[in-house]
Amino acid sequence: MKEEKKEIEIGVVVIIVLIIVIAIASSPAAFSFVSTYISPYFKSHYPGFLFIIQSIFGWILGISIVISVLLLIGIITAIEGMKHIRKKEAAIYDLKVETAYDENVKGDPTLTKKWQSVMSHVDSPNGSDWRHAIIEADIILGEILTKMSYHGEGIGEQLKGANKADFNTLDQAWEAHKIRNQIAHEGSDFAMSQHEAKRVVNLYKQVLEEFFYI
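The structure assignment produced for this chain is given below.
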């Protein structure tokens, strides 16, 4: 496409040069120069050739207007062609980056705020807050599954009804939920480091990111 534009630009330059040459050749000044300096020389030395030159010059004067009009039409056509090419280039190279999902449908400020609370708890120096962060994240997972129309008595039942073809992070959801169940059953007896808590929270995060909820 760029090569086509370059060829059109070169063509426009050539046409403009031709118009200038014809305009100069058909101008009164050029005619006067030929009559004053060229004609006497050929008249005295080559009278027959002078007739041929005068005939050619007369033809040039006669068709110069027609050629100028045609060249002008060519310039206009070339310019319009360039505009068309530039519009195509703009359509290809100036595409606007759009959001890959509908924010009004999938974006959920309430869940985002809840997730911020999860992150605040997992960053806490208090071990009980780490477990609380995972429980909060699991609640968010349940809300998402409900919004996605997965049915069941609890999150476990909902995950069983999920299809991995439509749920790329299903394994992460299962792993995180199982750890949440251990916390719920063992309470404060469940030993967990902050590093492990952040790893589990990150599993929930991957699920939320897949469906653009955070």
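Interim note for the steering committee: The chain has two domains: 2-93, 103-210. Residues 2-93 form one domain.
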